[in-house]
Amino acid sequence: MAKCVQSVQEFVQDSFVPMVAVLCSEEAERVTRKNNLNFAELLRPFCRLTSEGHIRDPNNQLLIVKNLRVCVNNLSPNPSTASGVLNPLQRRVLNEVVLSCQSQEGTLSSVITAGDYHLSVSATTPWFEAYRESFLQSMPASDHEFLNHYLACLLVVSSTEAVPVEQFLKLSQEQHRVQHSGEYTYPKWFIPNTLKYYVLLHDIEEGEEQRADTLYEDMKQRYGSQGCYLLKFNSRKFSTEDEEQIPDPWSQYLHRNSLHNQDLIGEVAPTSNEEDSMGEVDCHHSAEKGAVTNILDNHPLQLDTPNSSGSLETPSGVSTTLKKGSRDWESVTGASGSHGTCLTLNDHDRIRQFIQEFTFRGLLPHIEKNIRQLNDQLLSRKGLSRSLFTATKKWFGGGKVPEKSVNEPKNTCGLLYPPEAPELQIRKMADLCFLVQHYELAYSCYHTAKKDFLSDQAMLYAAGALEMAAVSAFLQAGVARPYPAHYMDTAIQTYREVCKNMVLAERCTLFSAEILKSQGKYSDAATLLIKMTSEDSDLRSALLLEQAAHCFINMRNTMVRKFAFHMILAGHRFSKAGQRKHALRCYCQAMQVYKERGWSLAEDHINFTIGRQSFTLNKPEDAITAFRQILTNGSRQTASQQCAFLREYLYVYKNVMQENEANLPQLPLPCIISSATRVYFGHERRLAEGEKQAATHVSLDQEYDQDLAAMWFHLEEQLVTAANRGVVPVNFLPTQFCLNSQTDNLRHPLAVVEEPIVVEVTFKNPLKVSLALSNLSLLWTFTPDFASPGQRTAEELPSHTVTNEQNPALVMNDKERKDNTVTTETILEFHMGPEETKMARIRLLPHRTGQLNIVGVAYHLAAAFPGEMAQSEGNQVTDLIRVCGRQDFKIQGPRLNQTKEDKISVRHGPDRRLDPIITPPMPLIEVFFLQFPTALLCGEIRKAYVEFCNVSGVALCGLRVASTHPHFFTFGSQATTPLTPLSPSSAENCSAYKTLVTPFQPGSVEPEMLVSAEDFNQPTGVIDIPINGSVLQPGESTQLPLWLRGPDHEGVHEINFLFYYENTKKGNKISHRVLRHTVFICASRSLNVQASAYHSSAPHSSLDNKDSNGTLVFIDVENINMSEAGVREFHIVQVSSSSQHWRLHKFINPAKDKDCKLTSRERAKLCFKATQCRPHQANSEVKKYTFADLNLGNERIISSLTPCGDFFFRCCRTTGSHQVDVAPSRTLSSSRSQSSVSTEDKALEMTKIVKKCNELDLNLIVIWKVHILVKINLVT
Amino acid sequence: MAVCIAVIAKENYPLYIRSVPTQNELKFHYTVHTSLDVVEEKISAVGKSLGDQRELYLGLLYPTEDYKVYGYVTNSKVKFVIVVDSSNTSLRDNEIRSMFRKLHNSFTDVMCNPFHNPGDPIQSKAFDGIVSGMMTQTG
Asked: CA A732 to CA A1072: how far, in whole Å?
């Protein structure tokens, strides 16, 4: 239980105080009304006595009565009876009391630490205290106890009255009628001869003081000085302009009352419809004039519904009207002035004095007298044996008729005593003792009474005696009597089960729990409180559960989870009782325990409830936070549950959105995996256009590969080196087209104006429900770049940042300006399946140079319901709960690990992939390939065409290409290009060569050609592309032939090209651009060529005389093709030689076979004679290669020209570089088709050769062609 | 037999919680969570008096109107909670004890799995099977 303002002793003591009734004459009523108060109200603030009173107990011991309070109420007789349940009106009042008393946020919370839980719990629960006070006040007076029966009656008459004595007489008679006529069962009176105290009111402003004094003297004569009083008040006129500040002691007492009054007024209209008698309504009005608390005790309009949940279940509407009403009421009272405006501080003192006088002179002696009387009665009865007395009673039916209650058929509490039954006298005395704080005597009396009642089986009385015995035992100061908790337990159980009186049981529980709490028995208190919760009253259950929860948290072994659980139960009951704020508070407190501890199901449930309650309490922000938690927590709810959550969230969200429209709020769904965001700069490319095949370049579909990136980086470095004449610029950075988490994002990437930026956002749907996103677009801010010379329109705009972050619907007029800056593409529909991870690609097209920051995405979110999506009206349904929101990218850079600080803490570098700098226009090239093969035989030469197309508005130059396989292709050298046919149509015969028709002449000396290697020279790896004029103007395109040679090794080869070009204007931020292309070539086996050289041992023939030192070169050719790719046979067309020192001289075909055909697995041996070149050729300054062609067919192919020469020199260079010093005896077995074989044969037979080189440096080029069976598939 | 079986980690978050599908799962989550208070109370009470020689079985934690909640704590402070229908009077203390022992053995097997990361929710078919057996047995 939470801490209370009062101590327990004070609380219990204050709950039972002497009751005093007030009966006013009309005139007196009028006089007091001046102060906007009735007489009882006027006295109320002064009812607590500050000084000590004295009383003598029956043994003449003097007792001190401290801190006594009397309760003054207007007398309002009515015939209704008390019952065991509160009537609806009382319930409503209690409800209202609790509702009006809310916790002040953050003021009274204490932090409790238990284990690893740190909870902030409200230390006090003022609403509970308010409820308790109101509840105890509204306790109906019961027959079985006398504590709240009236002890005395104040008869008040004004001095302005004509004959005040007559009035006193009238009032006295009235009181007597009420008490003794039997018409009214209520109010109840303590003792038959009630103390009457005569009060003469004297209005100082109105009446004559003289008259009042004489009247008072007269009264003293009549009633004795102890029984009357002259109260002078109203010593000033009512004036609103009087600024004198007088404290208003009534406000705290009357504020609640005004609420009550208002409730009563509100009550009339609905109930009068149900209740037919108008008389009762009138009665109700008259009652309203009286003290409010009296009315509450017994209201005439008691509905006969024991289950009043009906009125409580629909509280929202009622309570709002009530609230409104009460506000009106307050405003009315505020307008009519505050209370007690005619009273000065002196008057306050007079009233205080009056109460004191009345209590000490009138009330206490009266009580004292009665106690003594009762004591005497009891003592006289003591002579009889108790047991005998009761036994005779039982046997002879006694003097008392056991009487069942007529009014309460439910009342099964055994017999009822008549009001003046002797058994009740002891109880009466006990109550009197209790009221004057003589707890010791009270306890012994209660104890005796309890025994009597129990033996009579009068259960209700027994329970009452037990309850009070326990309370008085507790209140006995300094006596070592333990608090008899079992008395209370028995009493509660009896009230509940036997008497079915929940109200009394509740009162008993409240006391017992409070007392147990004060003794540190929290666990017992909690058990009691929890037991008291029941279905009949949600409000009570809620409050008690909450107190129980507080008990759990205050225990020595703090039971945090029980606290939380009972808080939730309390919250649930509060919400059932319509106390939304309290419900929300309970759930929020419980949330602290469940939060982030893995109990997701419970957590979701609480969040959901908090969300709902917050929303209904008009705290949409809190609601959204709560709902957001459910949706993003990775909840394990079922799909239907999540669907409900989502729908609720969207609904709330939509409502919030309507309230604030300026900014797009953040949406929690779907999750954006920020680090997976990829940014691509450039156009999306079509890969094929008719027979043209575009360069593959980079696309977002490719995965990032570290090795590949390194390879491209290397190629680009080569190109840049070549472009800058062998030096890599200091600020060289590889071009990155696609940025992701693995790329280097430390610098701002460079994007080109009018070229799109594609951002790939990875969305993850954590729910089991489909989501429908729509109008997906990027949010950005843009800072124009004024320094840029290209920006002429810069001065038109004020120098501020342009952004599209505002709600797009609101700023339509801005749209044009934004579109002038950056065009934002919108994806209209984006559907996400349950638990799906999906990428969205959104484009931006910058139109101006400057700094662009991509901030986040904006979209409309709606839940997609599978059935509805298909239907046409489904769209309308989804429209209803579609909300607009945004999500920002939160990209964290890589973790820093450089300095010590970096290593010992977690730091992250910047990630600028979403902050590109837009630069002025750059050239852009498109490269297309025509007739590009996908499969080649090893060494096969194929001609293809490549087309370069400048698609930008800027001229480009310096076109170069680098490749991982420089052997694979050639554009033809500058020297030979003009000779090659430019049209692709001439390549019909698949002959890539320049040929001459020459009939085969065996034995003839073959023609030879001298070619300088420089003609074919190219820097390593990088090839300049020979385009006309070396500049490609905007929109221009050019086509070049391209020869390809199948790789030497079979298998699939990945060949990468990197095309390089520059702007013709220098000095841009982007110095160059590159274009990537990757092809895959499948190479299949063709011919295996082995060559060997032997010194000719045959005698020189006449013809060869001059070349005495010739050698024989044997070439073994084997067809190792396994009929792959439809190859049938190979024709060896020509063998050429190329060397600086040797040349092939003659073809000696041992088989005399004219043409050399090789079918599968066939071998052939070709024999040639090689002779040395003429010395002058070999000695010339420029190294020149002698090419000699020996054709076996009818055509001679000029091997020294493109492409043969190109490939030869390219291979030569690489092999040559390898073999400078090494001269192993090796034959290149893998010389295929047109393979250049460098055969270095340390021939042992060549001893006779006295040349400086004892090795043969001869390259052979075998040219072949292939017959391919074209398979024709007949499609039938 | 049992209507809800839960395994709670040392740090009091659920490793495994399953209840009969016919009833409100949320209710059992709350019940089990609240029972942890009693478990902690019992552990702290026992720990002082008996030292290390502690019985793992905690007995009846508390009865509610509809259910009885039993607890068991391993030496590594992993808690097992079994919720039994109150109407099921045939269930003796000994049987509950043996259920816990079976559960503990199966849990040990799960922990012995080298691929199981201690502290992760239990996802084991064998364990599922044992639990299902306890929940369906005798209905």
From this structure: 10
